[in-house]
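Reading is simple: the token line describes the chain's fold. The lines below illustrate.

. . .
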Amino acid sequence: MSQERNYWLAWSQVAGVGSILIDRLYQHFGSLQAAWNADIQALLSIDGVGTQSVTKIIATRAQIDPQKLLIAHLIDNPHWWTRIDPDYPRLLSEIPSAPGVLYYRGQVAIAENQGDVPTIGIVGTRDPSDYGRRWARKISTLLASKGFTIVSGMAQGIDTEAHSACLEAGGRTIAVVGTGVDIVYPPRNQSLAAEISQHGLIVSEYVAGTSPDRPHFPARNRIIAGLSRVTIVIEAPTKSGALITAYQANDFGRDVYVLPGSIDNPNALGCLGLLSRGAQPILGLDHLLELLSSIPQLDPPQQLQLFSEAENPSAQRIAANTTIDRAASLRAELGIAKPSIDLDPDLHQVWLLITSLPTSFDEIVSKSKLPAATVSSTLLQLELLGLVTQLPGMRYQR
């Protein structure tokens, strides 16, 4: 295990080789050590590895001794996990783009990493209204008091409010940063970062000393979504990084909740757009707790499996662990028997677009070319008839 870790670290240093390609290498060769020693032809046989990629790999291998790299790396980066480490956050490991190496600073909670402590992402604009700030603090305080861990990005605005309120309530919070874990951005959050490292955790896929860089922040949003059972969007304009986090959470099969806002508030327009796509509105603190009470429990921990970009184990796992058949419950409540398939044209058109594999709401709307409201109504009717099942993240399957 320790020797293999050296090669996960070494591969993370190869420019242009991201987490998805590393997963493919691991699956194909059985270990990253074997992949590191593979010849050119063997590397070229991997999907996504072309001549340019091989050239970079060969050049990097000539410059790096994995054992010496480890010794030098530990000087500035003493704490990190790889995907094969048992303490690597379980929820994050389930997404197809999980970082091969994840650096951390602060207090590790093993139960949290294993998924035994529920984690909730809270994200939003860097320039919130008083309404947004107030509700970010209300929600974070409530969840902290109920034992949830709050995950956010330590940016100014909603992120800062969520982290701060959680800590003030005596809760635990995780900050996912787009810099090295030793760099605080924005600089005004120095004291907040210090407090998080004392009572929570700061994580990053970037090595110590990495300065802020614009592309890093959208990339780190997938980690926020991946660490969270649910992502809550407080306020977000139409071009907000918070929306990226919400879309990625949806892709990972995780639920998205939204604080409704006024159509007159530009910071609410992104949230209203999420609601139109099927995100759950938060109608109050009691309603939020009711929504969270329906989150299915995770399976007992299993041996690590790595997934390619085309695979999404999250939706499959959550669907397999849902303990209540929502369609059956609705039919029983309304006294509707399951009929044979004899549907009107709209129902039949939408039903044909849904297979035994999870299909997103947006994909159904796009392929059916029907208005979103019509698709939503049609899906509900199909669900009542027992012909489709809704999965977390507004996905549907037969």
